[in-house]
Write a structure and sequence with these properties.
Length: 142
């Protein structure tokens, strides 16, 4: 069995790290720019106003709804792009992160559930319910 030299391992790690960074940047940077742009238009404040009452139950500002929607519909990287463009407290980031960790990438994971023989609708509703319950619980505890 051949062993890779330290130099080969280093370059392989460097390549994989750069590839991963590029993959993440292709999602995070455009979302960050879009949300930053929307902050300077009437659109984001309007959306924030619509979502603020619901998000208040979780101790989150209305802007956090955008992170939840993108994280649940697209992926966690889109949610990270939104979160980094908002001025959230550590408490708010903790609540939002827990909710997103429970329910994220719902369309993709519903397809995985279907392939695994699990009812995708039941699993999606369970994950959304668990996410909302965790948000309410953390808001009460933190």
């Amino acid at each position: 069995m051949l062993q890779a030299s330290a130099k080969e391992v280093f370059y392989q790690g460097l390549y994989k790290g750069a590839a991963t960074t590029w993959k993440l940047a292709k999602v995070v940077v455009p979302v960050y720019v879009l949300v930053t742009f929307l902050k300077h238009t009437p659109v984001l404040p309007w959306l924030t106003g619509l979502c603020a009452p619901l998000m208040g139950h979780f101790g989150l500002p209305g802007e956090a709804a955008l992170a939840l929607v993108l994280g649940n519909v697209l992926n966690l990287y889109a949610a990270v792009g939104v979160i980094t463009s908002l001025a959230l407290s550590p408490r708010e980031v903790t609540i939002l992160a827990m909710m997103l960790l429970i329910s994220h990438s719902l369309p993709m994971e519903a397809a995985v559930c279907a392939q695994a023989g699990v009812n995708p609708l039941v699993m999606t509703l369970f994950r959304l319910g668990a996410s909302l319950a965790a948000g309410l619980l953390l808001n009460a505890l933190l």
